[in-house]
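Limitations
The structure tokens in this dataset are predictions for the assembled complex, not deposited experimental models. Users should treat interface geometry with appropriate caution, especially where small molecules or nucleic acid strands are included. An illustrative entry is reproduced here so readers can see what is and is not provided.
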Amino acid sequence: NKTPLTCLTAYSKTTAQVADKYCDIILVGDSLGMVLYGLKSTKKVKMKTMIEHCKVVKSYAKKSLVVFDMPYKTYTNKKSAYKNAKEVIKKTGCDAIKLEGGTKVAKIVKYLTSKNISVMGHIGLLPQSSTKYKLKGRKINENKKILDDAVAISKSGAFSIVVECVVESLAKKITNTVKIPTIGIGASKYCDGQILVLDDIIGLTDFSPKFVKKYSNVKKYILKSVKNYCQDVKKRRFPSSQNVYK
Ligand code: KIV
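Predicted assembly:
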């Protein structure tokens, strides 16, 4: 019905419960490597870690579609992609998997969808293979390649594509060209839906590129609470009579 799709990441019980109230899609993204584990990139995120987080999210998300982000090097060929995707679905109960890449992974996506695995593509900026977080699609060659990637993924049977950090005109062109919904992150209002990292929009992380809108500053509230608690303990204001079992 052309209403934009709402998508956020979640990695835990509470974030899954909250996202599930409003979102169409919840992504258990490998961004958890940086957000929760302090890694420099998503490359070191392990399958085992992703599975544990996805199990929790899936068990608390009652209505949203839960998508599992396949970690780096877990889909290098058809066979390993199928084996790993099957394991993920069996262990977590997720509804779909996401993998990064365009024409290069199109055959793998086609193979997975032929085996009834729902696949979300991811084109534009690809965190698993980029060293820098940089806008894509400014150069003519790059622009054409990303459009080709989108078409290849769409033709492979994927049900949607994340389009990350591309210029607005390209996002618009991709959305008008492919038959499946485009989910933008730093890719303008012309996508069919939007996705962001939940921890970024609530101000729990310090990641603040232009495309992230901050809806609150949770880190500030945590800081204030921890400061007040520590002061209370030092000044013997906590525990008070209200916190004691007589
Ligand atoms: O890992 C992730 O969280 C992602 C999105 C933000 C699209 O891939």
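Some entries come with short summary sentences. For this one: The mean pLDDT is 97.
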